[in-house]
Amino acid sequence: MIKVSLLLTFACISQWVYATNGLPETQGAVILTVSGNITHTNSGATAEFDLSMLQAMPQTTIVTKTPWTEGLNHFTGPKIEDLIQLLAGKGEFIEATALNGYKITIPMQDVNKYSIILALQHNGEVLSVRRRGPSWVIYPWSDMNLTRNHKFYTRSIWQVKSINIF
Amino acid sequence: MFKRIKFIYLTSALIILILSITLVTDLHKIRNLQNVQKSDAQLSLVWFLNQADREARNFLQHASYLYMGQQGISKQQVITKFDIFWSRYDAQLMGKISYKLFSVDSGRETVEFTRKILLQLDPLVQQLTPANTKSFQLINKLMDEHLQRLYALSINAIQHRSAIRSQRHSTIDDLYSHLLITLLSLFTGGLLIFGLFIKKGKELSNQNMIFEQRVEKRTAQLYKSNQSLTFEAQVRKKSEQRSRQLISAFDQSKEIVFFLDAQNCFIFFNESFKKINAAVIDSICIGAPFETYLNAVMAQPRPKLVNIEKQQWVEKWLLGLRNSEESFEVQQLTGQQFIFNMKRLVDGSVITIGSDISTLKEAQHALAMSESRFRDFALIGADWYWEMDAQLRFTFLAGDVEKISGLPPQHYIGKTRAQSYTDTFRPHADSTHSELLQMINREVFTDYEIKTQNTDGRQVTVSLSGEPRYDQQGNFIGYIGAGRDVTERCLVEALDKRLIAAINSLNLFVTIFDDQDTLIFFNRQFGEVVNRDGPNIVLGMSFESMWRACSDYYAREYGFDTEHWFAKRLAMHRNPVDDFVLPLGEHRYLKIFEQLLDDGGVIIIATDISESTKAGQEIHRLRNYLANIIDSMSSILIGVDRQCRITQWNFAAQKETSISLESAYQRDLLEVFPRLEAQLVSVTAAINNRQESSHLKRLYLKAGEVCYEDITIYPLITSGESGAVIRLDNVTEQVLLSEMMIQSEKMLSVGGLAAGMAHEINNPLAGMMQTANVMLNRLTAENIPANLKAATQLGISMQSVQQYMHNRGILRMVSSIIESGNRVAVIVDNMLNFSRQNDAESSQQNLAVLLDKALELSSTDYNLKNNFDFKTINIVKEYQLDMPDIVCEPGKIQQVFLNILRNGAQAMQEANVSCPTFVFRIGYDSLNKEAIIEIEDNGPGLEEGVKRRIFEPFFTTKKEGTGTGLGLSVSYFIITENHAGRLLVDSVVDNYCKFTICLPKMGNRENVQKKFAASVL
Question: Which CATH number fits domain B253-356: 1.25.40.10, 3.10.20.30, 3.30.450.20, 1.10.10.10?
């Protein structure tokens, strides 16, 4: 079940369009660094994001059950697909790294097929590190039965620090 | 049955139900465990704890780095690590892992404790600055407690997981067992049900079969019953028919037949019965009691019977009624004698049949009388019978009296014995007539012999027996008697007496036993000798008793082995064997002969053969002795009879021919000894003319070897039968030895001659050869100044001189002189080789190498090549491998080889041998320590005469001018004189020729020693 707020989308579209024209510098603490085969960057060969930049992107909410939470949970954040598109990234895989050094490779196919998001909020609260933030890769498990298995659970990396597209 | 099946079905169903429940339970358990494992796989508790531990340690590490002021570590980093650590225990983000943690021992406590720790750590982390010892120590302490708890929890989690795994395995094992049991149960149940079905099917089949059999049996019974009824009707019909026929037959029969019922009342009687009892016919009717009939009969006046007899008559009938199946005789009213047979049947009725036996009785009486008379005669047992009246006159004669006397019985009737004699039949002169006296005295006489002479003039002996007869008043009424012809018996008895006399006179022991093995005769010799000192042999003894007594006697007298010979003799008794000889003691023998007789008896004749046996043994010993002498001779001795058949064949002859004496005996001489064919004339002459002949050193071949033998043939007369003895002596060795001696002597003389001649010839030959060469030189050489000068002075050129010489054949003649001179030189050189002087050095040589070199030289020999292509000869080499070197003079030995090869090759060439072959054999005889070289060709071989002379000097078989006749002589000298060896030749014409050279390993020691002595001096 994916609920996308059309209004929010229309409200933000002007800003998103703006953003695509050039990647602004980060204003706050950098919470995500994207590297690899990308076109748009703001810090050398990488693209750095603070929370506001990510929140400025079109937000998608996935309502789903997870093995780590009770009941239905609302996760909100930009689609990784949008993020790659924003950076004009190209590749077959993305490699996500967590704050504790955990790494996972996600095929680009997942990104396109399941519309996975980089959740910034959980049940309306911004994800802190203590709550497995600042960002968390979320699959729509409740909507896609096929994804409810160990393979996709392991790709759901939390406390994401950086992404490498290749 | 059905109850049992029901029970089995119910039990099976119950078992299947229980097993199904068990299986479902097991499956459920496995499912649960799988779920646990599945969830564990999705969200591993161990993984979680591992990560939590990692985060805690990361935090503590970074806190330590900050506390210690390590470069590059900021407080924000420590806080981040703390937050990451915190995130692991956030109550909202633990989800399902909480359940897992809580299911493990100390899981819940550890989580709750950690959360408390985190709360305590939160301010301390905020306060932590480098060198803030207090905060760090607190942090460190709290973290230490946390890590210990976490470690314990991890251990519990691992154990928990192991427990789940083992539980799963156990459950799977249970499931497997249950499944196995279920399958086995199902299989067993299936088999059981299948078996029950089979059994039931069989039972049904059997029941069906029994039912069918019963139906068949019942049907057969019905059929049989039906047949039985039909048969019964037929039988009844036939029975009635037979009854009618029987009644009719009974009525027509002469026998009396009547039937009584169980109450002894008449139910049937035939016409004969009515006829016999016509007087009392009123008392006889069907249903009338039999007793009424009897009473009626009794009432009849019967003058012949008194009352008692009547009473007995009735009792006989009554007895007959009681004792059925017994016949009894009854007189009827008519006076006829009847025999009745009464039989009471099972139903009580009586059948009576009576037959008239009056005639039979009378015949029996007459027969009895006749039998009485003839019994008397038979008792006497004679050829004829006679009766006399009181006046001793013949009243009756029967039998063969006419055959004996020639007079018919009527001749004797009314005459006394004396009156009955005629001129032709009269008493013999030796006979007496005392029987008349006995008759006068009324005495019984038996076997009284009377000799008479019958009409043929033949003396007849008759034996008479008689007894007086008296009437009832005791008055003498005559004689009755019989006579027998005992002529033959008398003659036999007379013969017996003579035979016994003859047997008694024999020097034999004769005993005769009858068929019961009882001694019935022994002759006088036996009685006198055996019974003189020994056992008391008497007639009537059994054979065994007699032989026991004899054995004991022999044992005492001669040391006879009683038990052994007793048993052996008993075994031989009545099982006659030829020549059974009984040794009584040393040099004493008894030959026993038994003959079974026709009457079952046996005659035994024993002969004392001691003397003859002794003589026989001596002859046998002598014969063996002579045979041994003949056999031990090395000469072949052959005895032949007049027809030249073998009579004597000694061991040497057997060895020579491999034919045994038994095989050769009486066979033709040439058949068994064919090589005497040439001497057959001499053998015949020896037999016919008593002429001895000898053939010395006769040549013959034995296994390809040439042998010599001396043959001597002696005439022989044995027991009037003429024959001959042929003696053959092998003299091969002597011949060869003498030949060798002659050869040696010849060679020695030639050797001396040759050595002298050689020196004498050499000097003029050298001058002659030199002159011839100078002549040739001066006639042909153009480059010699002296030649040119002489020619110039004469006004002729050298070419003219040469031309003249050529045209006149002078050069050819000079060349011929030189060539002839060379040949003479060769001869002289060869002759010099006969010299004993030996200047050449002996050395150790490999004979194979020498022979090969000689072979090589042969193939390049100009003379030889001209005549013969040596390459066409096959060469076969058989060299011993470990051949030692031999001390010899190599040049001379090669010369020998060359000579032999040359001769062989030329011989093969001349004979046009199709496949010429040389065989070289080199071997070493370690026993005699000499090398043996054989050179064999398959050429024409050598005739005996040639072979004997082959080593003689100047002896050659080659064409004139082609051989000096010295080659082999020289070879012979080289081998025998120079090397102390031997040179032998062996050959078979048209087969092969073989030269054998024997060389001592150490060479000619005499030469060596001489040389050694010369060098020392």
Answer: 3.30.450.20
Distance from C-alpha of B698 to C-alpha of B711, rounded to nearest angstrom: 8
Q: Which residues of A touch B97 (CB under 8 A)?
A: 67-68
Nearest to B83 among A66, A68, A129 (CB): A129
Domain ranges of chain B: 6-204, 253-356, 371-491, 506-615, 633-730, 741-835, 838-1016
pTM above 0.80, yes or no: no
| Min Cα separation A33/chain B (Å) | 17
Domain topology for B838-1016:
Heat Shock Protein 90 (3.30.565)
In Å, how far is B132's CA from the nearest CA of chain A? 24
Task: Give the ipTM of the model, two decimals please.
Answer: 0.81
Please judge whether A130 and B42 are an interchain contact, meaning their C-beta atoms are less than 8 angstroms apart.
Answer: no
Main-chain phi, psi angles of B318, to 5 degrees: -65, -40
pLDDT band at residue B1000 using 50, 70 and 90 as cut-offs: very high
Average pLDDT over residues B704-725: 81
Reported as a single tens digit per residue, the pLDDT across B439-454 is 888 888 887 878 787 7
Q: Does B287 touch chain A (CB under 8 A)?
A: no
pLDDT digits (tens, 9 = 90+) for B310-367: 777 777 777 777 766 567 777 776 777 788 888 877 888 888 888 888 777 777 777 6
CB contact under 8 A, B96 and A67: yes
Tell me the CATH architecture of domain B633-730: 2-Layer Sandwich (3.30)
Higher pLDDT, B532 or B438: B438
CATH number among 2.60.40, 3.30.450, 3.30.70, 3.40.50, domain B506-615: 3.30.450
Identical fold between B253-356 and B633-730: yes
Closest chain A C-alpha to B15 CA, distance in angstroms:
41
Tens digits of residue pLDDT in B531-584 = 776 667 888 888 888 888 888 877 777 777 778 878 888 888 888 776 778 777
| DSSP bridge pairs for B730 | B709
Whether A150 sits inside 8 A of B83 (CB atoms) is no
CA distance A124 to chain B (A): 14
Interface mutation vs chain A, best among B84, B114, B119, B122, most A CBs within 10 Å: B84
Give me the amino acid identity at A120: L
Q: How far is A106 from chain B (nearest CA, A)?
A: 18
Query: Tell me, what DSSP letter sits at residue B586?
Result: T
Contact map slice: B 245-274 vs A, CB within 8 A: none
Looking at CATH, the fold of the domain delimited by A2-165 is given as: Sulfite Oxidase; Chain A, domain 2 (3.90.420)
Q: Per the CB < 8 Å rule, is B92 touching A69?
A: yes
Contact A67 B93 (CB under 8 A): no
Contacts 24+ apart (CB under 8 A), B251-259: B254/B355, B254/B356, B255/B353, B255/B354, B255/B355, B255/B356, B256/B338, B256/B340, B256/B352, B256/B353, B256/B354, B256/B355, B257/B351, B257/B352, B257/B353, B257/B354, B258/B352, B259/B349, B259/B350, B259/B351, B259/B352
Residues on chain B touching A74 (C-beta within 8 angstroms): none
Cβ-defined contact of B83 to A100 (cutoff 8 Å): no
Contact B83 A69 (CB under 8 A): no
Give the residue extent of every domain in chain A.
2-165
CB pairs A-B closer than 8 Å? 48
- Write out the two tokens for B583: 């040794």
Give φ, ψ of B343 to 5 degrees. Answer: -135, 125
What value does the mean pLDDT of chain A take? 84
Residue A71 to chain B, least CA–CA distance (Å): 9
Residue A135 has phi, psi (to 5 degrees) of: -140, 155
The SS3 of residue A140 is coil
Give the angle subtended at the CA of B912 by the CAs of B910 and B916, to the nearest 5°. Answer: 105
Q: What is the CATH number of domain B371-491?
A: 3.30.450.20
Q: How far is it between the farthest Cα atoms of chain A?
A: 43
